[in-house]
């Protein structure tokens, strides 16, 4: 029963007769709706992602039934309008569910050229590939777009697809020691606009050392992206290379050993084999080798403990060996001995900065070795002989990034101690902010709470430099310069963009927002600006608005933009804004004199580096001009913070005459602090602090230990004792090692072996952490392969030095072993022929072609097919639906008086007498009431009862009379006749007719009540 009742509620029975004529609105709507949707789809204006949703239009039959069944209570016209509005709403709703999308057709081809720059590709082949790109781009149609991607181990976008192609030189930095075609094609496809027909032109030798190309081909095919290929052909029939340099695993001083060199060749030949120890030749011999593998043994002799690096090189005739990069292999030996302290000094510094310190360390019975920053080794393995490393007032720009990374890794992985001794070239003023050295120190160079530190502002202008990777160098040194600044300092970068001209890449903002700046710098498109004027004006306006105490501008350029006017230079001088100019490969003498003149006039400096590698140190040096305020040239007496063994036996601490502001890190041990300042209440400046970093201990002494700030300390009785206890605190503790580790490489894999020499044999859980090139780290678990021996194999990820730290655990026992290995050259140099088969497979699976250089442009841009793309337009349909909802409600709920509406516009004035309803009725009511009052005084009570009709009756009679054709006089005369001829109490014909209706009965009831009131 309930189901039946529900059915009747949803589909009620009709109250009126239904005919086929009433179904015409539904039939016309369905036909129109179907024709509209089909025409939109076929014409290409719209497409619907879910066409099955159109089946919901069948609900229009139910809507039509409710309308024509007579349950709306509306007039015929309003019912039809309501039905149409409901059907339109349903049609729009169904279209929304079908997901409409607007269709756009464009006859534009976007091409991304992918050029292989890996080591297996010679420089001449790269130049030919770039010439091919330039030639084909100049022949493309003007509306088509072209972009450039370069790749090796990684990929980089040189130019995104655009109509113009402003290529000057390669600026992207990539790792060339491998080839990753999968990543390259994925990046190139991501650069193609969806609305255009996309195509990739791959220029490569087809060798793939990383990734899997098969994983990307199906995706390219599904997207309709064809890959045209231009093979780089080469084949070497004569090649000689060194595979390995084998050294003894365990050695003792004073004994003879042998080193074995493994040589391979494609053909028989001769050459000279040279073995070098720490760079010095110890063996030279002419050798004869056969095709295949050859092994040569060389005697070696170890005279003292330390780190020994051996390199073997085969020298052959040029016509017998075409790749020279694979002719050298490197390996090392480390012989443990008495630990030493390495003191690193500033090459441009004063000997008095470190001489008293070195003397005190020797008095503490430790071996000391002093080297300048330029002589500092570039790998952590060569630092193994040292127990501690000291930086004595040496700036960061005296090192390169590799050297600083070696220090960091030696502290963290090998447990070597480290201390930075202060001075004007240390800590923040020395450019160590946001470096790996700051990570290792117990203090940070961010001065977040110091109120006494004035703020600096730096504006950097980048002009494209026409040398290889010029823009990349500009971005790199910009980031390094910003790192030097304090968090509260302001920095902004200006560039010339090919599309938007001179602009701020980002306006002056706190250097503490470094992470926000990096993506903007990396994505900058740096163009060849025509003039210095606009960018210098923009930079000056920004610096003027800044409230910084020190304001500076750095410009890197080749010098060819138009120089600024003397008036603009005068504004720089007036606002005390200095400008330093860095000339990189300038075009001539006039350019040099212009840049030198700008720097001289504004109080800046002029640089003319001959090598781009000097640029980072220049920018760091310039940025340090804003950091000099961190140096506190005042006399203080350090106060003891935490009790430490370093102060054992020391009762009074002499004063210091200066120090560098730093902030101690959480969990660091602050042993000596500067007295607290009133203006920086609660903020303590550390003088001596320690903490544990990885396996090593690091220290920060923010003053110096020389006759400058530390003059009273150098003459202090406890100076040598303090230095001795300081070295004991930070130096690596030599422990008896029960684990021995060695490793070797074989192709693209390395084998790591660890042997346990503990007196008590037990099973160990051994794991090794490997740090290698590209800042990549990997952890592997070593499996036991025999009693006390554990082994693991790990894939290599490029040439360079790998450091390995093995840890063995068993219960409470934990042992460490350090070692490593060196991959001397890229595996790309072991490729002796190209692989065009891979390229042809790529072209075949994606619908591309193998290109002929002579007719390549016609093939690339000639195969045209308009690209159809679509965008969702859900919002527009939703807006239309929202408009129809109130319209539907209005049709059903609001009734309009069209006579009144016409009168607003002046229509229907001739029918005014007949259309006036309420006003005429009210006037007539007033007249009837007056007439009744008059008659009440002239007639008897009986007559009054008869003649006293209700107001409603009079109004009804008046209305009926007003609609008859009789004149007003005739109506009045007839009314009087009726009153005289019908005596009171009798019924008239009208009464008898009206009493049959509800209105008549109501009138009779009212007359009886009036009669009773009069009585």
From TrEMBL:
Every VWFA domain range: 110-287
UniProt-listed CDD domains: vWFA
Keyword Zinc-finger: no
Any Pfam family: GATase1_like
Residue spans crossing the bilayer: 23-46, 52-72, 79-98
Composition bias, Polar residues: 959-970, 989-1000
Region (Disordered): 934-1015
Keyword Transmembrane helix part of the UniProt annotation: yes
Source species, domain of life: Bacteria
Composition-biased stretches (Low complexity): 942-958
Name by which UniProt lists this protein: von Willebrand factor type A domain protein
Swiss-Prot/TrEMBL keywords: Membrane, Transmembrane, Transmembrane helix
């Amino acid at each position: 029963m309930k189901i039946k009742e529900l059915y009747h509620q949803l589909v009620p029975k009709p109250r009126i007769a239904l005919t086929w004529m009433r179904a015409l609105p539904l039939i016309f709507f369905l036909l129109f709706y179907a024709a509209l949707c089909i025409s939109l789809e076929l014409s290409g204006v719209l497409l619907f992602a879910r066409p099955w949703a159109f089946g919901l239009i069948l609900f229009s039959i139910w809507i039509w039934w409710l309308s024509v069944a007579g349950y709306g209570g509306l007039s015929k016209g309003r019912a039809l309008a309501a039905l149409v509005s409901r059907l339109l709403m349903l049609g729009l709703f169904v279209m929304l569910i079908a997901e409409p999308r607007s269709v756009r057709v464009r006859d534009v081809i976007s091409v991304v050229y992918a050029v292989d720059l890996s080591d297996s590709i010679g420089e001449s082949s790269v130049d030919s590939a770039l010439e091919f790109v330039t030639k084909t781009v100049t022949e493309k149609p003007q509306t088509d777009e072209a972009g450039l991607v370069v790749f090796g181990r990684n990929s980089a976008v040189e130019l995104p697809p655009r109509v113009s192609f402003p290529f000057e030189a390669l600026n992207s930095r990539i790792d060339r020691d491998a080839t990753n075609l999968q990543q390259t094609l994925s990046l190139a496809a991501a650069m193609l606009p969806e609305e255009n027909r996309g195509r990739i032109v791959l220029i490569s030798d087809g060798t793939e050392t990383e990734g899997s190309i098969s994983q990307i081909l199906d995706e390219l095919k599904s997207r309709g992206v064809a890959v045209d290929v231009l093979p780089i052909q080469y084949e070497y029939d004569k090649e000689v290379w060194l595979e390995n340099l084998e050294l003894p695993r365990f050695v003792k001083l004073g004994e003879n050993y042998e080193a074995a060199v493994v040589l391979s060749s494609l053909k028989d030949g001769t050459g000279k084999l040279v073995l070098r120890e720490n760079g010095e030749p110890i063996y030279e011999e002419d050798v004869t080798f056969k095709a295949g593998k050859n092994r040569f043994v060389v005697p070696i002799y170890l005279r003292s403990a330390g780190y020994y690096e051996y390199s073997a090189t085969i020298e052959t005739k040029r016509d017998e060996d075409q790749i020279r990069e694979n002719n050298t292999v490197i390996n090392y030996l480390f012989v443990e001995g008495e630990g030493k302290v390495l003191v690193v000094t500033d090459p441009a510094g004063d000997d008095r900065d470190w001489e008293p310190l070195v003397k005190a360390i020797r008095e503490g019975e430790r071996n000391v070795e002093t080297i300048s920053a330029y002589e500092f080794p570039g790998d952590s393995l060569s630092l193994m002989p040292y127990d501690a490393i000291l930086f004595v007032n040496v700036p960061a720009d005296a090192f390169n990034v590799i050297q600083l990374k070696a220090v960091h890794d030696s502290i963290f992985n090998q447990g070597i101690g480290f201390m930075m001794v202060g001075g004007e070239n240390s800590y923040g003023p020395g450019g160590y902010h946001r470096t790996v050295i700051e990570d290792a120190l117990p203090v940070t160079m961010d001065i977040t709470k110091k109120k006494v530190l004035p703020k600096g502002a730096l504006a950097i202008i980048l002009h494209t430099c026409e040398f290889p990777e010029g823009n990349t160098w500009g971005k790199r040194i910009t980031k390094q310069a910003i790192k030097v600044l304090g968090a509260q300092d302001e920095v902004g970068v200006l560039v010339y963009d090919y599309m938007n001209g001179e602009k701020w890449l980002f306006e002056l903002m706190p250097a503490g927002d470094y992470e926000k700046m990096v993506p903007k710098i990396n994505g900058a498109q740096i163009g060849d600006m025509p003039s210095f004027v606009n960018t210098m004006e923009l930079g000056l306006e920004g610096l003027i608005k800044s409230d910084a105490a020190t304001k500076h501008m750095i410009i890197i350029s080749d010098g060819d933009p138009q120089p600024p006017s003397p008036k603009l230079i005068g504004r720089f001088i007036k606002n005390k804004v200095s400008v330093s100019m860095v000339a990189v490969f300038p075009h001539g003498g006039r350019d040099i004199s212009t840049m030198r003149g700008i720097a001289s006039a504004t109080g800046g400096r002029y640089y003319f580096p001959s090598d781009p590698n000097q640029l980072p140190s220049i920018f760091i040096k310039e940025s340090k001009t804003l950091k000099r305020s961190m140096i506190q040239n005042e006399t203080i007496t350090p106060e003891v913070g935490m009790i430490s063994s370093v102060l054992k036996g020391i009762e009074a601490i002499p004063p210091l005459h200066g120090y560098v502001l730093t902030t101690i890190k959480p969990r660091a041990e602050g042993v000596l602090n500067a007295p607290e300042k009133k203006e920086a209440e609660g903020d303590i400046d550390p003088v001596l602090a320690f903490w544990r970093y990885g396996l090593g201990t690091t220290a920060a002494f923010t003053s110096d230990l020389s006759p400058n700030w530390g003059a009273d300390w150098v003459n202090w009785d406890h100076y040598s004792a303090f230095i001795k206890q300081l070295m004991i605190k930070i130096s690596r503790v030599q422990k008896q090692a029960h684990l021995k580790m060695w490793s070797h490489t074989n192709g693209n894999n390395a084998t790591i072996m660890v042997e346990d020499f503990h007196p008590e044999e037990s099973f160990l859980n051994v794991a090794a952490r490997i740090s290698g090139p590209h800042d990549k780290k990997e952890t592997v678990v070593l499996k036991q392969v025999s009693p006390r021996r554990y082994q693991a194999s790990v894939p290599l990820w490029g040439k360079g030095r790998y450091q390995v730290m093995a840890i063995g655990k068993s219960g409470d026992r934990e042992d460490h072993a350090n070692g490593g290995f060196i991959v001397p050259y890229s595996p790309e140099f072991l490729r002796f022929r190209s692989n065009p088969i891979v390229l042809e497979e790529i072209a075949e699976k994606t619908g591309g072609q193998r290109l002929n250089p002579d007719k390549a442009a016609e093939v690339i841009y000639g195969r045209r097919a308009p690209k159809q793309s679509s965008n969702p337009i859900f919002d527009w349909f939703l807006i239309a639906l929202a408009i129809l909802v109130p319209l539907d409600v209005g049709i059903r709920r609001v009734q309009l008086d069209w006579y009144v509406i016409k009168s607003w516009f002046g229509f229907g004035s001739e029918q005014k007498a007949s259309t006036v309803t309420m006003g005429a009725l009210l006037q007539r009511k007033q007249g009837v009431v007056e007439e009744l009052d008059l008659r009440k005084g002239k007639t008897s009570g009986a007559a009054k009862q008869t003649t006293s009709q209700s107001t409603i009756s009079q109004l009804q009679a008046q209305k009926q009379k007003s609609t008859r054709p009789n004149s007003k006089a005739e109506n009045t005369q007839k009314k009087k006749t009726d009153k005289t001829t019908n005596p009171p109490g009798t019924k008239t014909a009208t009464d008898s007719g009206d009493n049959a209706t509800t209105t008549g009965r109501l009138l009779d009831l009212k007359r009886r009540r009036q009669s009773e009131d009069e009585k």
